[in-house]
Amino acid sequence: MADVGELLMSVLSTIRVPKPGDRVHKDECALSFSSPESEGGLYVCMNSFLGLGSQYVDRHHARTGQKAYLHITRTRKAKEDDGNSGSGHPPKKKPTRLAIGIEGGFDVEQEQYEEDVKVVILPDRQEVTSEDLATMPDVVRERVSLSMAGIMAADSVSHTLQVQQWDGEVRQESKHAADLKQLDNGVKIPPSGWRCEVCDLQENIWMNLTDGKVLCGRRYFDGSGGNNHALLHYQETGYPLAVKLGTITPDGADVYSYDEDDMVLDSKLPEHLAHFGIDMMTMEKTERTMTELEIAVNQRVGEWEVIQESGTTLRPLFGPGLTGMKNLGNSCYLNSVMQVLFTIPDFQSKYVSNIDKIIDEAPSDPTQDFKTQGDQIGIAPQMFKALVGRGHPEFSTNRQQDAQEFLLHFINMVERNCRSGSNPSEAFRFLVEERIVCQQTQKAKYTQRVDYIVQLPVPMDQATNTEELQEAERRREEGDSSAPTVRAQIPFTACMAALSEPEILTDFWSSAVQAKTTATKTTRFASFPDHLVIQIKKFTFGLDWVPKKLDVSIDVPDTLDLSGLRATGQQPGEELLPEVAPPPLMTPDVEVKAPVLDDSTVSQLCEMGFPLEACRKAVYYTGNTGIDAAMNWTMSHMDDPDFSAPLVLPGCSSGPGTTPTESLSEEHLATIVSMGFSRDQATKALRATSNVLDRAVDWIFSHLDDLESMDVSEGGRSAAESEGGRDPPPGPRVRDGPGKYELFAFISHMGTSTMCGHYVAHIKKDQQWVIFNDQKVCASEKPPKDLGYLYFYRRVAE
C-alpha cells in the first residue's frame, strides 16, 4: 500500500472537492451511453468531474494527464415480478391520476442498485478503497475522502435536468376567485337534471359562476363533448369562471377559467355555489372529471394500443443500431427523431464513422460540444437534450413537444454547425418551385425556396367511410354512450391530389395589369432529395380556433413515385409577369402615422405562438375587425418569406439598417458575420426577426434561398448528381435524382395534441420492421403504417 499512498500523494494537488456550481457528471459518460450500470462502470475525473466510460478513460488520461478517477459501479438488485409483460404493454394497474412518478399516476420504473465506489489511479488502474484510505497519512485520507464524499453527494447534471415526477393535476388559484363578481339575478340551480339552456344537451354541462347560466362545454377532437355554448357565452360576456356540474363534491369540483385558459382552483367555491342555491356539502359526483377524461383519452384503445402494438408478444432485439433511449419524462419526441436520423448514412458517416476523430478534437468539456453529443453510440440523452435545447423557449423545457418542430430545429442546428465540411442535412434539402399565373393575362411568375419537409394536407371530405362517420356522429349527438369511435379512412392519393392541385389567390396584385386580380398558384418539386420526409397535417384548429387532432387512417404506400410532380420551369412561349413593385397605398403628401392596433387581438394571436410582428400585421391588414379575421389572415400567410418581418407602412422612413423601433445591434451583426455570412445578409436576418439574435440565426438558415448573394461552400449541385444532366437550380446545394422512393421509417403520435401524449418510431432494418418505444426495442409484428405522423422515404436507385 506504500506505493499506492505515494502515488496518491503525488497527484493530491489535482484532486478537487466539488463546490457549489460545479457540474458533476457521475451518472453518464460525456462521450457515450456508458453509466455506472454499464459493463466496466463509470470513471469520474476527480479534477474536472467529467464522467468517462471504461473505453474512454485511458484516452482522457492520455489527453489531459489526469490520473485520479472515482470508479463507480452499480449492480441491479433482483426484484419480484410486478405482473407486467415487459413487451410494451401498458401497466395492468390503471392510473387514476394525471401524473408521472406519483402514487396513482402513470408508472415510472424505479430500479434498486448495489453500489461500489473506489479510487482508481491511471495508467495502471491501481485501486484504492475506502478501507485502504484508513491506513494512509491524514493529509491524503482527508483530501481524498472529502472529494469522494463530495462527488457522491453532489447532484449530478443529469439528475438536475431530469424530471423525476410530473403532476398534471396541480392547479393554481384563479386570479378571479377572490373578487369574482356574482349577479343578484335570482337564479337558483337544482341539484340535478341539468340541461344546456341553448341546445338541451345533458352531458358536459358547465355553470357560469357570475350569472348562473347553465351551458354545454367544448366539442372534443373526436366529435364528442358539447357544442361550445359555455365558451361562446364567455366570449360575449367576459364572465371568466365556470364549474362543471356533476363533478361537485364536498371536496371540490372542476373549475375552468376561460380568461386564464386553464383548470384552476377557486378557494371561495362553496360561497360561489351557495349564491346560486347549491350546497356543496350535499352534492355527489355524477360525471367524470376533466382529469379522468384526459386519462381515458391517453389510454384509448383506438390509437394508443395499436401504435405501441400492445396485445402481442414482441421479441426484444439487441445489437448495433438497436439501442433504446431512456425517456427523460417528456423526451419521446427527441428519442423517436434521433433513432430515425441515425439510420441515415449521411448522419452515420458524419457522427459515427468519425467517432475517433470527433473525440480527439472534442473540447475540454465535451458535454457542450454539438459534434461530440451528436454521435449515435455516444448520444447521452440528458446531455444531448440539454445541448440541443439550450436557449430555445420550448425544447429547453421538460414539456412534450412536436416531433416535426424538433426535427426542423435539429436540422437548423446541423446547418449551423456544418458550414465547413460535410453537411448531413443535405440529405433532406430540396427546392420547391411556385408558379403563379395571373388569370387575367395568363402571365406567370416563378419563385423557388428551400424546404426539408413535405406537409401533406388531409382532405376530410374525401373519406371513404362517410356513412359510418355520419352514423357514429348521429349516435353521439343523441347521447348514445355505446356509439363506437370510427376513424376516417382517407386515401393517400386524395392527400397527394390536395397537395398538387392549384391554389386560387383571390387578392393577387398583378404587375401586368397594375391591379388586384385572381391568380392560381401551383407548387412543384424543383429537385428531389435523397431522403424525403412527409408530415401528415393531423393537427389543425377547430371553428373556435381550439387546437385539435384529426383521427384518421391513411393508406400510406411502401413505395412512392413523385416524378409527375417535377417542376418544369418557364414553358415555351410563356410570358413572365413584369418585375414591377406594387404602388404605395397612400400618396407621398399624406403623413404616415403608426397604426392603431387592437392590443387584445394581437395578444390573443401571440398566445397561440405566432411571432409578434406577424400578429401586428394580421390585425393591421384586417382592419382591426377581430380575432377571426386576423387568424384567417395569419393562417393564409404563414408561408410568406416576410411573415415575421416587422410591419412597415408605405412611406415609412425605416431604412435597410433599422427596424421600426430601434437600430440593429452591431454586436448581433458581428456575431452573424463571424459565422460566414455577409453584413447585408446579417442585416436582412435581423430586420426580419426584430433584432433578436437567436431568431435571426434560425431565420437565416431557413431562408437561404432568399439570400441571393449568399456565397456558401455548398455552391450548387454537381452534374453527376443532377437527373439527366439538368443545370442545377440557383441557391444552396441540393441533391437531385429520380423521384422514386421507398418507406424506411415512420413516427407515430398518440394523444390529443402535440403538447401531450407519446411518440413511437418504427424503422425498417434488414427487411424487418422494428419498433423503438423509448428504451424498448422489439421486432414489430403489425407496424401501424396508416396511423403515422412523420414518414421517412429514401430514394430508390434505378
Automatic annotation (TrEMBL):
Per UniProt, the keywords (alphabetical) are: Hydrolase, Metal-binding, Protease, Repeat, Thiol protease, Ubl conjugation pathway, Zinc, Zinc-finger
Q: Name one molecular function that GO assigns to this entry.
A: cysteine-type deubiquitinase activity
Please give the coiled-coil regions recorded for this protein. Answer: none
* Chain residues that bind Zn(2+): 196, 199, 216, 229
The chain positions of domain USP read: 323-796
Chain intervals with Low complexity compositional bias = 713-722
Reported EC number(s) for this entry are: 3.4.19.12
What is this protein identified as? Ubiquitin carboxyl-terminal hydrolase
Tell me what organism the protein belongs to: Haplochromis burtoni (Burton's mouthbrooder)
Organism lineage reads as: Eukaryota, Metazoa, Chordata, Craniata, Vertebrata
